[in-house]
Write a structure and sequence with these properties.
CATH topology of the domain at 9-74: SH3 type barrels
Strand content: 35-45%
Structural class: mainly beta
Helix content: under 10%
Radius of gyration: 17 Å
Number of strands: 10
CATH class of the domain at 9-74: Mainly Beta
Order of helices and strands: EEEEEEEEEE
Mean pLDDT: 94
Number of helices: 0
CATH architecture of the domain at 9-74: Roll
């Protein structure tokens, strides 16, 4: 079980996008993730008429290291650390360490 999953809202804690929030689009195997509207770069694309691709400068979201983001806690409105615990029914869930609120309901 991962601490941050696809669909989670995260806040960037370091780098050029520090303080910005976004939703995780995908989590890669090497510990990086793609977050919506975070770490956006300009990509120069060559036109390919056979494939119907127009050339130009496009905005592209690049992966960001998982250690540079924290899960956003709406109760405290800040980034928060995540822990794991087992419930009485045997399920393993994630929870915020600051207020013991369960993330996976």
């Amino acid at each position: 079980m991962r601490r941050i999953k696809k669909g989670d809202e995260v806040i960037v804690i370091t780098g050029k996008d520090k303080g910005r929030r976004g939703t995780v689009g995908s989590v890669l195997d090497d510990g990086r993730m793609i977050v919506e509207n975070i770490n956006v770069v300009k990509k120069h694309v060559k036109a390919n008429p056979n494939a119907g691709v127009a050339g130009g400068i496009l905005d592209k979201e690049m992966p960001i290291q998982a250690s540079n983001v924290m899960l956003y806690n709406p109760a405290t409105e800040k980034g928060d650390r995540v822990g794991f615990k087992k419930l009485e029914d045997g399920r393993k869930v994630r929870y915020f360490k600051s207020n013991d609120e369960v993330i996976d309901a």
